[in-house]
Every structure is written in C-alpha cells, then in structure tokens.
Amino acid sequence: MKLVAVTSCPTGIAHSEMAAEALEVAAKAKGHEIEVEVQGAAGGPPIGAATIAAAEAVIFAVDATVRDRDRFAHLPAVEVRTREAIDRASAIVDQAVAAAERAPARATAAAGAGAAGASRTDDGERDVLASVTGKSTSKGEEVRRWLMTGVSYMIPFVVGGGILIALSFAIADAVEVTQHAIFVPGEGVQSAAALGIDLRTWFGVLLLAIGGTAFSMLVPVLAGFIAFAMADRPGITPGFVGGLIAVQVEAGFLGGLVAGLLAGGIVMGLKRIPVTGTIKRMMPILIYPIIGTLAVGALMYLVVGEPVAALNAALSGWLGGLSGANQILLGLLLGMMMAFDMGGPVNKVAYAFGIAALDAGNFQVMAAIMAAGMTPPLGLALATVVRKRLFSQEEREAGEAAWIMGASFITEGAIPFAAADPLRVIPSLMVGSAVTGALSFWFNATLQAPHGGIWVIGVIGNWPLYLVAIAIGTVVTAGMVILLKSVGREAPAAPAAPAAA
Amino acid sequence: MSPTISDLITPALVTVDLTATDRRAAIDELAQLLEADGRVSDRATYVDAVWAREEETGGTGMESGVAIPHAKTPAVSRAGIAFGRSAAGVDFGAEDDTPSDLVFLIAAPEGADDLHVRVLSRIARKLIHESFRTSLREADSSQAVVDIIQREVEL
After folding, report:
1. Distance, CA of A499 to chain centre
2. How far does A341 lie from chain B, in Å, by closest CA?
3. Which residue from A321, A314, A332 is spatially nearest to A441, judged by alpha carbons?
4. What is the pLDDT of residue A492?
5. Which residues is A80 bridged to in the sheet?
6. For chain B, which terminus, N or C, has the lower number of CB atoms within 10 Å?
7. What one-character DSSP code corresponds to residue B77?
8. What are the domain boundaries of chain A?
C-alpha cells in the first residue's frame, strides 16, 4: 500500500525526525511504501503532488499545526502525536492501512479530484461537512482534534483558577469571602481594615478574585483555541470574541464550543475565497478579523446564543436532577472514560464534562472524575508491591512513581504499564475507575477544585468516604491487574511447568 | 567545506561514565569536554544557551533513554558533539520520566548554516533503531563509541 505521512513538532526537530524514521522503518517492515514530509526547523522537501494523488492514506504524527493540510484532504487520515509515532509506529501504520481499507471508494474519488486537494467525493455526508469546514477527511478525527486543542489550552486556566478558588474556600469562610470585593470601582483596591474583615478572610477574598478572573477566561480560551486549531492564527480573534459573547448570553461551555467551531469554520471559509495581489495581503490584517468577528458575533447574539443557552440550562438541570441509580451509572461511565486512555481524548472528554458540571454548580461530577483518574496509577502501584514477580524491574520502579502520580491525579502515571500490556492493563483500570466513580457519587462526595488529587482533600465534601471510594477502586484495579496478568502468564507456561506453586 | 562526522566527535569528547546526576550538571560535564577540546570558548554562556533550549522544549529526553541537548551560539568556536553515558541515567524531561542514559550534547557555532540541525536530525533518526542504542550502551570505551557513531551516522 502507498502511504504518506507528515511529521511536525513545534520546536526543534528531534521528535519530528524520529517520528519520520520510526514510520518509515515500520511501514517498510510491513511491505508498504511510505513518503514522509518533515515539517520543522530543518524540514525536508514537501511530498510531490503525484505521490499524494497515488497515496491511499495519510498519517499525521504532529504536535503542531500541519502546513498546507488541504493537500491531504481527500485521504483517510490517522492522526497521532509524534511521541506516539515514535513508540508505536507499527500499530499506527496498521491503523492507516485499516483506514484505507475501510474507505475503498475514496482512493478513486481522490484520483478523480486530482492532487489539488479538492474535496469532491461521492459521499453526500462528507460533502456537507466539506462545505461547512473546508475539510473532507475523517471528520470525526478532525473535529476531535479541534476540540481537544481548545480543551488542552483551557486546562491550565481551569487548574490555576480552580485551585486558587478552592484554596480561598479552604482558608476562609466560603460564604463570607463571596460577600466582599478586593477591588471596588472608584475606590481602588481594598485592605482588610477597609473591608472590616480579618487578614485570613481578606486573603481568601484576594485568592477568590484571582481565581475567579482565571475562571472567567475559560470559555473564551476554549472558543479561541478551537478556532485556532481549525483556522490557524486568523481564527483566534473571532474565536475569543465569540467565546466572550457566549459568556454574556449565558450559553456556557456549550456556547463556547459552538462559538469556536463557528469562528474556525467561518475563517476557513474566508480563506478559501480566491484572491490575489493587494487584497490577498489585506486578508489576514483586515478581512479575517473584521468579517470573521462580525459574522461570529452576529451569529452568537442573534441566532445561536439563546438556543444554546437554553440547552446549557437544560444540561445543568439534568445534572442537578440526576439521582440514585442514574448518578451511579454516570459514575461508572465517567470512570471508564477516565481510565480508558489515561489522559488521552476520551479521558479529556470526561474531564471537560466535569468542568462543565462544575460551571453548572454540580460538584459531584468532578469528585467522581478525579477519584477515577487517581485509581489507575494507584492500583498499578499497589499491584507492583503485592505481586512483584508479575512486573519487570522498570515497571516496579514506575510503580514507585505511580503512588505520587496517582495521589496527585496524574492519570498518565499508568501509561508505562498500559503501553507494555494494554489488553490486560486497560480493562483492569477501567473496572477499578468505574467502581470508584460510582462509589464517589454514591457517597455524595463533592469537589469544587478541578485538580489537585489528595492535596486538595481540604475542599472535598464527605472526604472520609471519598478516600474509601479511592481505596476500594485502587484495590479493585490492583486485583484485576494481578488476576489478568496471572491468567495470561500461566496459560502459555502451563505445558512446560505444570502445577508449579 | 562541510565537516564530516569524524570532525565532530572524537574519543576526547566521549565519556562512558558520566558522573553528574542532574540535568544541568550533566550538560556542564559534557560542555567541559567541548571546552577542553577547544570547541567551546565560553562555557558558561554555552551551557546557559543549552539550558534555555531545554526549558523552552520541556526537555530533550525521550522515552528510549536518549537525550539531545543542543545549542547554536557564538560561544561555540568549532562545531562538535559530546557524548556521555550515565549508568544511573539523568532526568532530561522525557514524557514518561524515563531517565536518559545516552546524552548527546551538540554545539554549533553561529552561522553554521544548517549543520547543527542536520547532525541532530541524523542522530535523532538513528536513535529510533534499537540496535544503535544497544551498541552505544554496550560500547566499552570512548573509542568504541566514536567508531559506532562514525559507522552509523555518516554525513
């Protein structure tokens, strides 16, 4: 099979070159032809149009935006980070081949469309998408990447703002701090004496003001960077403005998502208008910011803002109304999502849902999500202690670090184990996290900070039972891992060493 | 005239027993080799430049145990690569926290067109191959390391 790939990393060239080499080696080992374009500091020549036209699938191993991505728009695509390509090139080549095989008609459609990246296909659904976004490839993947870009830029704001707010509530009276303002227009910044409160409360008021300011940026940052992922720098202004309007019209996170997608889509559309000369130079300076922002702003205020706000209110209401069995089901589902890819897109979707719930005033969802994100590393750490012989020396060392990472809600601490033995480890993690998520809901644990693990115990509601939920999930995870690893080991070893131990 | 790999790395630039245990000290230890060999004229400035690059990228360590700290600065008088092997490994910020036991410190003078980048990309590409890493881990002397690199990374 003929494949093409683009590798790219934001700084330096080491990772993009290594990913390129890894993909070349893996593809050739499997008897495929591959041509890789390295987009980076050194970079190589772009892949020729004829090669792209003849290719059956494209792999993007990228940590940064792909230049001239439209060239590949007609190809089924697999998109990963450079590090994934370095570690698992073979599996990624298989995915690309599978993607090409799933889409047999596309290669011929692509040949008909030529190498110019035109998005003519026989598939009506794909044509609709193309007209909206200017892209026609693997729309699910593409949309996912846009959303994840937005979410990943938003998370530092969530963490910074959320922890400061949680700290404020922890050190001072949560009701009292909200009754004062650190800055009063016309009177300036207020001292503790001026507010008539003690120093501890005053510091809480200060923390709340700073954290709240960071939080107020969440939706605009989300929208701005979704639009950035779609349309590059020209997407940022319409995206941020659309996000701010989403906040004004009380459309919340859903509004932010819509604003970002609208802004990105509109600027992508504007970029497709064929222009030359002076007009072309004016596009990024004048046309994108003015027309793009006007269009997004008008749509947000006049068309989509209010329906999305209603939807947002409905979501909040649904969350608030969830009870009993439904909550536990939600806990099971979110728990499994948190453990499924340990910091990957599915995990982030669950996490983003938790933030949306937090925003809507439901603190149980975030508690369940954090607990479920803590048990994968904790459970593996426990397993390495209880059954040393099932783990390699490296894994046992990783287990030591996994205690801290798990306690700090860094689910990624489980990745070394999952990468080495995914079929046994990932289901085990999902079971343990699902149990923890459900228990957290059942125990009615609450969390107002979006991160922090065990270190924010002071702001967790029902914390003793919350710790119980985490402990049970940790034990379940460890038990599952040990069970599955033992079963897998004994089966092949049985003929050689029967009835050993 | 563009340099070949043998102009860039010699046994004097290799240590198979890196003693430093933290990233900055490891960079400095390898930079001393470059300085003693007359390739770095201002070690402090060079190390600062390498450090800045580490901080900017979050570390050049990779999960395979390899790190490629590097900088292009006027503090380098002649291009070179220092290589250090650490028994315990040094944290170079790899995504999975794997300590780096194979450390390539690359020095390029200002105006070295894309030499810096070409050497880096050659080595980075070779490092994908497990056999290359294994032979570097098994080499028993500085000369053996240089022989392996020369054989594998021909410019």
Report:
1. 47
2. 15
3. A332
4. 41
5. A61
6. N
7. S
8. 2-137, 145-314, 322-493
CATH of domain A2-137: 3.40.50.2300
What B44-51 contacts at long range (C-beta under 8 Å, 24+ apart), as own/partner pairs, is B45/B73, B45/B75, B46/B71, B46/B73, B46/B75, B46/B76, B46/B107, B49/B73, B49/B75, B50/B105, B51/B24, B51/B27
| Residue B19 to residues A423, B29, B30, B89, Cα–Cα distance (Å) | 40, 8, 10, 10
Look at A18 and B124 and tell me if their CB atoms are within 8 Å: yes
Contact B62, B97 (CB under 8 A): no
Is A29 within 8 Å of chain B by CB? no
Which residues does chain A have with pLDDT short of 70? 9-14, 40-43, 103-141, 174, 320, 323, 344-345, 488-501
Tokens of A329: 């089901």
Task: Report helix, strand or coil for A103.
Answer: coil
Alpha carbon distance A75, A96 (integer Å): 10
Query: Nearest 5 degrees, angle CA A451-CA A238-CA A311?
Result: 60
Bridge partners for A2 per DSSP:
A33
Catalytic residues of B: 70
What span, in angstroms and rounded, lies between the C-alpha atoms of A60 and A82?
Answer: 8
CA distance A63 to A6: 11
* C-alpha to C-alpha distance for A55 and A110, rounded to whole angstroms: 9
- B95 touching A, CB under 8 A? yes
Catalytically active residues of A, by annotation: 9
pLDDT tens digit string along B42-85? 999 999 999 988 887 677 788 888 888 888 788 988 888 899 99
User: Which single residue is written with the structure tokens 């950035």?
Assistant: A228
Of the candidates B64, B117, B129, which has its C-beta nearest A42's C-beta? B117
Q: Which of B56, B97, B117 lies nearest to residue A13, judging by beta carbons?
A: B117
Predicted pLDDT at B32: 95
Helical segments of A232-304, H only? 236-248, 252-271, 277-282, 293-298
Exposure b/e, A324-342, CB count within 10 A at least 16 = b: eeebbebbbbbbbbbbbbb
Render A415-439 in DSSP notation, one character per residue.
HHHHHHSHHHHHHHHHHHHHHHHHH
Alpha-carbon distances of B9 from A445, B85, B98, rounded to whole Å: 60, 15, 26
> Please, what are the domains in chain B?
5-152 (3.40.930.10)
The neighbour count for residue A202, using CB atoms within 10 Å, is 21
pLDDT for res A107 = 39
pLDDT of residue A179: 83
ipTM value: 0.72
Q: How many angstroms separate the CA atoms of A224 and A243, rounded?
A: 7
Alpha carbon distance A377, A418 (integer Å): 10
Q: Which residue has the tokens 């098994």?
A: B138
Cβ count near A482 (within 10 Å): 20
Yes or no, beta carbons of A17 and B56 under 8 Å apart: no
Burial state string for B25-55 with b = 16 or more CB within 10 A and e = fewer than 16 = ebbbbbbebbbeeebbeeeeebbebbbebbe
pLDDT 10s digits, A243-277 = 999 989 988 777 888 999 999 999 999 988 887 77
Residue type, A16: S
The predicted structure's pLDDT at residue A52:
87
Paired residues of A37 in beta bridges: A6
Q: How far is CA A244 from CA A236, A343, A444, in A?
A: 12, 28, 33
